[in-house]
Write a structure and sequence with these properties.
five-stranded mixed β-sheet; disordered N terminus; globular; alpha/beta; four-stranded mixed β-sheet
């Protein structure tokens, strides 16, 4: 539910459920992953009534005061038909046969059995087939369009699902024509990473070997013409390095829109607005990887696609967030630019973005894939 930098307090008093991945045993005895989402509210983290604890600044203990409530013991016993049997109100546990040794407690012993039952039902298996799972809490309130003129998007996790969606659609749209790749000498690629909010240092994070390994393998793939050439070994020896030096990376992560209630927090000449186009992010301390050649390239792409752009520079007396842009730029030595759609309430359990910026970003990414090969050779850097 929460990650570093997230406003955890906003997870209180929300209709929560669980979603994630379960590892299940199939009929062949293999252990396979299943995606699970329980699509109804089953949990809530209640705040203490203000009458009992009047605090000027809301604070809580993350270890002892963030437990979600799943229901009442009496209701659970009644569901199981045990209320009249006079059983104690302790949580029932599964019985383990001495013949079925397990190095770990069963899932029904480690977690509430009914939670395991719900996860198993969503996965389409029996509870005994659940070997393990990774679940997180999420807010069940659906995303919606709002604002007086339906110009806003109210949703969880706009940061960074919005840019992930826009880049995916942009890539697909750039290949709509049968002739899309006829004169293309570049590889059109998007890479969607996990764990950016906790440092990216995981197997599937941006600080892993995932992207370099994929690019290396792609760079040495030879065309039919090259397989007929005697220079194959010479070319493949430096193909990876040549690919990196001729590539361009857009680090697409959501940006900050000006909040009218806190306008003094923004640099006077850099107050991005929602629905006014994607935001190019700039920082002199390289918290963002943007530089002038990259700005020129994106400007020309945007010009061809009729997409408005904005610039953002954080105040000198303010802290600045960062993205995976500088990390990947340093690791790959590839030209990089940081960009994202403007939003309010970043890292809140409920965020706000602009409806029209979604289309702006999709068109910009489509144009980037279509026009990069033509434009990049026109932007000369010493």
């Amino acid at each position: 539910m929460a990650s570093p930098g997230t406003n955890s307090a906003l997870g209180f008093d929300r209709d929560l459920s669980v979603a994630g991945r379960a590892i299940v045993k199939n009929k062949n005895g293999d252990f396979v992953p299943k995606l699970v989402k329980i699509d109804r509210p089953i949990l809530r983290i209640p705040t203490l009534a203000v009458h009992l604890d009047r605090q000027e600044t809301f604070s809580f203990n993350k270890e002892t005061q963030l437990f979600p409530i799943a229901g009442l013991i009496a209701a659970e016993l009644n569901r199981q038909g045990k209320m009249k049997e006079g059983l104690s109100c302790s949580t029932p546990t599964s019985e383990t046969s001495s013949k079925d040794f397990s190095p770990l407690k069963s899932m029904a012993d480690r977690h509430h059995p009914y939670i395991v039952d719900l996860i198993a039902k969503e996965a389409g298996v029996s509870s005994s087939d659940i070997a393990d799972f990774e679940m997180i809490l999420y807010d069940t309130q659906k995303s919606c369009v709002g604002g007086l003129n339906n110009e806003l998007v109210f949703s969880a996790r706009l940061d960074n699902l919005e840019m992930s969606y826009c880049s995916t659609v942009g890539l697909v749209n750039s290949l709509a024509s049968d002739s899309s790749l006829r004169n293309e000498h570049s590889i059109r690629l998007i890479s969607l990473f996990d764990h950016e909010e906790i440092g990216s240092m995981t197997a599937q994070g941006a600080d892993s070997n995932l992207l370099p390994a994929i690019i290396r393998r792609l760079s040495v793939l030879q065309s039919t013409e090259m397989r007929l050439s005697a220079q194959d070994s010479v070319w493949t020896a430096t193909a990876y390095e040549q690919t990196l030096s001729s590539s361009f990376l857009i680090s697409a992560d959501m940006a900050h829109s000006v909040n009218p209630n806190y306008s003094a927090k923004y640099e006077p000449d850099h107050k991005p607005e929602m629905n006014q186009g994607p935001v190019i992010k700039i920082n002199a301390n390289s918290r963002y990887a943007t530089n002038s050649p990259g700005i020129v390239l994106l400007r020309e792409v945007a010009r061809r696609m009729n997409v408005p752009l904005q610039l953002f520079v954080v105040r000198n007396d303010s802290s600045c967030g960062s993205t995976i842009g500088p990390m990947l730029s340093a690791a790959l030595g590839t030209r990089t630019l940081d960009l994202g759609n403007p939003q309010l309430s970043m890292h809140s359990i409920r965020e706000t973005g602009g409806v029209y910026d979604v289309e702006h970003a999709m068109n910009l990414f489509e144009g980037f894939f279509e026009h990069f090969s033509d434009l990049e050779k026109k932007i000369l850097v010493d």
